[in-house]
Specification:
Chain lengths: 505, 505
């Protein structure tokens, strides 16, 4: 029975089917949905929209926390419902629609979306669709496995549709900490001084009269599709652990380091996993997404506390966590993404940010989003919030991609998400380049010699040597800066027409 | 008499000549000097260093607030004293030494340098050389026309050399507000809620036993070399004022707007100047450098309060201000640059940041530093602190440079300091592109049609049209992305071998 999840009885009459609820969403509207890295997403109303779009014109601007699971971005893209998508996605079908120019994708720093909404610099939310475990006696919405932008979407929306998900455990109640920065120009400091501080409410406070419909669901979150640690990610973790040991020896860090942020994806997860066999302890996380590695670190008694905006777990880890939420609950908190990613908090806590690069260049500029400078992978996500404002900004990547045909270290990146000023360490399985306090010419030597795959090193040395004859703070042979990428576009590999290229076929 | 400027009598015996004081600085040392955009720089000890370098080996790493005046960077570069220079400069001779690879220039976000020093991620300061108006009874150092990084340099240095400048008015006492964020991991919120809040001390607190020498000087600051507003900068200001009027009409801003930050340079100064003839009033500035325009706005009764880290004034404006400091004093405060540029404060106050681009691309990525992607102009300065974290990030530039031979709007910038996510508006004398909430394909149309010089528009439309056939979130013809720059390198103009190019000769 779902009624024990709707404590405000006057809302019982609002319970309807997904199709009926979805009628509140009309052609041309701006819709804010819960959902962040495949968790806590609204699961049935979006599908009803897709259905309806097969019969009548229906295009919406869709805002979420981050990427959605349950194939929702896929289904919506296939049904051509999306005219605009903000601020992050990670679905192959939607990606295609974005890169073809069908869907206008507004890739944003994840801390900024609701800040812009609140100051009305983005179109206002007509309808918010929020997954919840329950509704409180006052109409407060208790989110599920992510908060993301749900709180501000619900607070600002004309109308709210709540999807109560019976599959999400009631043990989650109390896990959330909903704090919304006060309005400028009278904003006060965010009173958060350690990752474990609780500064807000355990629910999203809304006027219940704006709750237009409630839909009951029982679908599970999608599981994360993380590939397990391998030899290379282990090597990356090893280099990083060795670096931190060195920092501890130098007295710059304690054995608890500084609070850790780790980006989405397989590599960042594997790197954190590598901390299990490290000498560090009483670690804390202040991150955006919490992946399997968070729970592995809890179980290994390495991690004291973890703050995030969403849980993104594999099937196995999800079963473990949701089967025994209480075991972890007093060491966990979920916050709105504008708090998890807030520049103020990131700088104050002095985070160590670990994010993944698609490619980096010899001077330490990082491309996290655009393959060949043009085709969107996922989006910048929170990486810019963290890299710019944290204590130490680490970027990890395997030194080569596509079986060695592409080097992830190139003369010049084809798109810059993180400029050299925001990149302190680059780590590949080959080694680590500590770029702090170095000029570009010094950085180039370290990146080439420490991080690049040996197959590409001679070529990079040659480029750099010739670039030096042209001079400059950041020497380049401008007409060749993208020659590796052009080679790959033409021949399928950056190796060009060489014996190595033939071997990599 | 200088003794009334050294209230701690036990320090009287430390007064020596510049040459003797400079002996504390030895080959290989790391030196932190006061000075920010040509003001408040140590003026005689650096020259004594240059002198000594003609007789004996002497190389130092030099850190400052920002650029120096009094030809100090020039003289030090000519004497080959600088092995490393951090974090900003603007001198043609030093620039040459940087671009030739002689001086390692570590270009940094201006809020980060002392943060990195404090956490020992940069080499420690051996000697700090700080210009002061006076020393208090407890040995506190009262800075002059800039604070910059002086406070933390003095607090962290082994030894301190103070240059007491008799030419700097004692009326400046009380103008400064020295607040140093507490140490991580126990850092507290910075208690600053409006630009006029005073949260620290009017002097730099140091243990007087570390004051190793005091030198008496009476040199004036260098005057700013700002070119006055012209037709084009007036047009830029006009577009921006019109934009803000629109925002006020829409109810997004009040007629006091949000606190303003304006970057260094002629264009930003001229743009602020343009606010004199605007309908806005009770404006506030929360900026890094305060230029002539700040005082023009005071005199026009448009500006209520201005917070900065340095004053950088023309001869005329300097005479007006320093002749009558008291007239402005209760509407002014100077802060350490890590507070003026702090992400926490920038986001909380919701600043409007106005900075200058060297070039921008059709998608809104901005290059502020590297001509042709290689040769350093000045440095990123504080523009990254502001652009990433403010309420509205504006970039201004004239649409063409070098008499029309170069377009400041290009297909792809050759270096990215500010990625598209950090750029809300681009304004040239041609017009304004409001990029908020737009995808790259939408941005390109606006930037080409509104901001580009008509001479280059057809060429850009052609590039963009062909780029579209390749697809992508951010379409490019990768092999031609830098063709305009390469054209200019070859022929002196981006117009290539065309009639327009011949006419521009
Ligand atoms: C960069 C990012 C895509 C890497 O993801 P990942 O899962 O860790 O890494 P993978 O090695 O599996 O790479 C993902 C894909 O990029 C491809 N790739 C990796 N390096 C590449 C390169 N240099 N050139 C082209 N493609 C590359 C991989 O081949 C893989 O493609 P596939 O999906 O077709 O197999 C991902 O981390 C991301 O989207 N980051 C941006 C957002 C972010 O950093 N958020 C942080 C805060 S949460
Ligand atoms: C970008 C910057 C150099 C512009 O300075 P400015 O004085 O406002 O503008 P100007 O038009 O006079 O340009 C300065 C020089 O750059 C050149 N320039 C301008 N656009 C150019 C372009 N697209 N390509 C090449 N050179 C260009 C000008 O010709 C001029 O050269 P000159 O000194 O040889 O005459 C300056 O604002 C800067 O250094 N910014 C980075 C730091 C910053 O933004 N700090 C902000 C916080 S304080």
């Amino acid at each position: 029975m779902y009624r024990d999840r709707i404590l405000l009885k006057s809302l019982w009459g609002k319970v309807v089917g997904a199709e009926e609820a979805a009628l509140h969403i009309r052609d041309g509207m701006t819709v804010g949905m819960s959902g962040f890295t495949r968790s806590g997403d609204a699961k049935v109303v979006p599908l009803a929209l897709a259905e309806r779009a097969s019969e009548q014109p229906l295009k919406i601007s869709l805002l979420t926390g981050a990427s959605l699971g349950s194939d929702i971005d896929k289904v919506l893209a296939e049904a051509h419902v999306l005219s605009r998508r903000i601020p992050f996605q990670a679905d192959p079908v939607l990606r295609k629609a974005i890169n073809s120019g069908e869907v206008m994708f507004v890739d944003q720093h994840l801390s900024e979306t609701v800040e812009m909404l609140r100051s009305r610099q983005l179109p206002q939310i007509d309808v918010a669709v929020i997954e919840a475990v329950a509704i409180t006696e006052d109409g407060g919405i208790i989110p599920t496995s992510s908060i993301g932008n749900s709180a501000t979407f619900a607070i600002l929306a004309e109308k709210i549709i709540v999807e109560i998900n019976l599959h999400q455990s009631m043990d989650m109640v109390g896990l959330h900490d909903v704090y919304i920065p006060t309005r400028r120009p009278h904003r006060e400091p965010i009173p958060l001084m350690t990752p474990s501080d609780r500064i807000g409410l355990p629910f999203i406070p809304v006027d219940p009269s704006r709750i237009a419909a409630i839909v009951i669901t029982d679908k599970m979150d999608s599981f994360a599709t993380i590939t397990p640690p391998d030899e290379e990610t282990n090597a990356i973790a090893g280099h990083l652990v060795e670096f931190f040991r060195h920092e501890v020896r130098k007295g710059r860090l304690s054995t608890s380091l500084q609070p850790l942020q780790a980006g989405i994806g397989s590599i960042a997860n594997a790197v954190l996993h590598g901390f299990i066999d490290s000498p560090f302890h009483d670690l804390q996380m202040y991150s955006e997404v919490l992946q399997d590695s968070t729970f592995e670190l809890f179980d290994a008694d390495k991690l004291k506390f973890a703050s995030g905006s969403a849980l993104s777990l594999s099937g196995e880890c999800a079963r473990k966590f949701f089967g025994d939420v209480k075991r972890y609950k007093d060491r966990l908190v979920l916050r709105p993404q504008e708090v998890s990613n807030h520049p103020e908090v990131i700088r104050r806590l002095g985070l160590i940010g670990i994010n993944t690069a698609l490619e980096a260049d010899i001077y330490g500029n990082v491309n996290s989003t655009h393959v060949n400078g043009t085709h969107m992978m996922n989006g910048i996500g929170g990486s810019g919030d963290f890299a710019r404002n944290c204590y130490l900004s680490v970027f990890v990547t395997k030194s080569v991609a596509k079986g060695g045909k592409l080097s992830s270290i190139v003369p010049m990146v084809t798109h810059v998400d993180h400029c050299e000023h925001d990149v302190d360490l680059i780590v590949t399985e080959q080694g680590l380049a500590d770029l702090r306090g170095l000029a570009p010419r010094e950085r180039a030597k370290l990146v080439i010699e420490n991080c690049m795959h040996p197959t590409y090193r001679d070529r990079a040395r040659d480029y750099y040597t010739r670039a030096l004859t042209r001079g400059g703070q950041t020497p380049h042979v401008l007409e060749e800066a993208f020659s590796w990428h052009l080679n790959a576009q033409r021949t399928g590999t950056m190796l060009g027409d060489t014996p190595e290229a033939a071997a990599a076929e």
